[in-house]
């Protein structure tokens, strides 16, 4: 009887052990099924087989890179991260003043080659080893194509970043850089990011970038079902891209350094002028929550982009074109961050959605609640009355062909800025072909002064009067906005990959 009890106990232990192994194997198989990955199980490359330990202490960078190199270039293999915390050296430059001061470094982090599929357990974490660098990257997709990243978490060093060369830039002791990225894309195409959590980055959760050597745009990118939270500079920065889908994500709590938006579309000052463009983008069914600037910011007004000239001496202008923003929830985003940060209200742009310097933009069926301006604004200067409105749920300025319709934004305004010449050096174009209709809002605020008033047509917008009754604004549109050609054109142009 005595030995029988021991055998029973040993049997129970053995059963538990083998069941644990079986659960782990089934978990990997289930993940592949979840993401529709059709790869033979024998071709699933586990990073632990290459020496990665995932104990949250040891540097796993080199061993993980070996696994990525093994899979890269093969569509028939998958690199798999089981549960664990994998410490990543995100910048392999030496810790010298020169390297630390480098503002954008696109050559560091884990290099992900073309034709790579990364599959991570929900509890697999790629953790940036705390560093003092201005610029770092966890997953680096430079000139990569056909890359898919599924599941897992990417965690930055926001809470324990090292302030080593703090006063090298901007004179701000808490600055120390802003380009610490979770996922970086440079000249990459056919990329899928699905169900990934990216948080606490020193800069952006995701950055679509182009460096001085770039020859092609980022293209055919899908970012979906992901949670992007508590990053310092941006949830997602889009500095160069075409054919981009951002769908069903939660992007929240961006705060720390300008602009601090959920998504910022801002073509950068690239050497290759043709890459100063973001076009053919769908942003839909996302939640933008409590970001320290707009939930979505379109900003084609960058000084360097506008003033710089190409090799033939022609004035250059950023291109933001064909953008669809629909079916998103905006809740608690700041509506005058730039006002507070810059210390001068006349330079403020405000709104949970901001569209500045863009063309062919369709904004419809969004819900905007709880705008949160951080400070008061001076409304005494009539020229800036429209863009000094703390409750501008949506702001449009210097843009062409923008349709705003069927949005729920009670007690919030739509503001349209008129022509403005900053410091008398360059006259930005006036807003033209702005159509505002069928929105539930407080009022439409138009700029009152300037050389030209904005070209705005309104129809069937509603606001509540003092006694609570609903009144209609002036109706001037004969066609139904839902059948507007702009919306159809955006969908038609993108549907080939959407």
Automatic annotation (TrEMBL):
<dbReference type="InterPro" id="IPR012334">
    <property type="entry name" value="Pectin_lyas_fold"/>
</dbReference>
<feature type="domain" description="Rhamnogalacturonase A/B/Epimerase-like pectate lyase">
    <location>
        <begin position="45"/>
        <end position="90"/>
    </location>
</feature>
<dbReference type="InterPro" id="IPR006626">
    <property type="entry name" value="PbH1"/>
</dbReference>
<feature type="domain" description="Right handed beta helix">
    <location>
        <begin position="97"/>
        <end position="265"/>
    </location>
</feature>
<dbReference type="InterPro" id="IPR024535">
    <property type="entry name" value="RHGA/B-epi-like_pectate_lyase"/>
</dbReference>
<protein>
    <recommendedName>
        <fullName>Pectate lyase superfamily protein domain-containing protein</fullName>
    </recommendedName>
</protein>
<dbReference type="InterPro" id="IPR051550">
    <property type="entry name" value="SCF-Subunits/Alg-Epimerases"/>
</dbReference>
<keyword id="KW-0677">Repeat</keyword>
<dbReference type="InterPro" id="IPR011050">
    <property type="entry name" value="Pectin_lyase_fold/virulence"/>
</dbReference>
<dbReference type="Pfam" id="PF12708">
    <property type="entry name" value="Pect-lyase_RHGA_epim"/>
</dbReference>
<dbReference type="Pfam" id="PF13229">
    <property type="entry name" value="Beta_helix"/>
</dbReference>
<dbReference type="InterPro" id="IPR039448">
    <property type="entry name" value="Beta_helix"/>
</dbReference>
